[in-house]
């Protein structure tokens, strides 16, 4: 968050629009949710995953949720047409800028860890897996555990595939929902044993290490900022950066281990809803 404020990054406004859109969905103000979701598309790489989930979710109960899609589409048309009027041919300029951006910035986190061909294959698998997850949870109630799991999943995967992973730490602001979901859960049974417990401990430890590693940086900066600026390649700087760099991967492993648990919860919730409808 501080990184984004320092750089005056539009990412913070987009993250706020996404959060507000989800809050509007939970409050059943779907027209407002669609409008805010369209505004967040000014940074499509951040918002497209959430947009895809909410559009699939709207299909799950089209009669009562169609206002979200209609408002989203109408707002997007107004934004695109308005931009064309103000700056004719803007989409070509934007496309060229995106191509240049990918060329001179650092690669995505998943590309940094794996080779590019493997990362592309993983991306394809992740997209299909998210699509299947969205469809499976399309009838869920906003704010329910399956709904929240789908949101956290898409935000975490988005962070893994965003470019400039080694510098754009302000993008981690979209991991705040996942972090809250990681730490503050009503049901702790999922971390009692097995792989899920290991990945939960790993993600929690990496998050804790971010704060611990920051303390000496703050102390040195307060005492002597020139010393800190000269030591940019030392462990004092690279240590915290490595921990921050690793956090999206750590929380991704936890989300991945939670898939069976989330699917079981989703199936149980669906049975309860069907029973209530039958009654």
Report on this model:
The longest helix has 30 residues, at 194-223. The protein is globular and about 60 Å long. It has one domain. Helix 2 (11-26) runs antiparallel to helix 3 (30-40), helix 3 packs parallel to helix 5 and helix 11 packs antiparallel against helix 13 (235-257). The N and C termini lie far apart (48 Å). It contains 14 helices and no strands. It is an all-alpha fold and 279 residues long. The mean pLDDT is 84.
The major β-sheet equals: none
Give the number of domains: 1
Evaluate the radius of gyration.
20 Å
> What's the count of strands?
0
Report the total helices.
14
End-to-end distance: 48 Å
Class of secondary structure makeup? mainly alpha
**Proportion of helical residues:** over 70%
**Shape call:** globular
Strand content: under 5%
Overall mean pLDDT score?
84
Low-pLDDT segments, ≥5 res: none
Order of helices and strands: HHHHHHHHHHHHHH
In summary, what is this structure?
Helix content is 78%, strand content 0%. The protein has 279 residues and is mainly alpha-helical. The protein has one domain (2-278).
Question: Which tags fit this structure?
Answer:
single chain; mainly alpha; 279 residues; globular
What order do the helices and strands come in, and which of them pair?
Layout: H1 2-7, H2 11-26, H3 30-40, H4 44-59, H5 62-86, H6 90-104, H7 109-113, H8 116-136, H9 145-161, H10 176-183, H11 194-223, H12 225-230, H13 235-257, H14 259-278
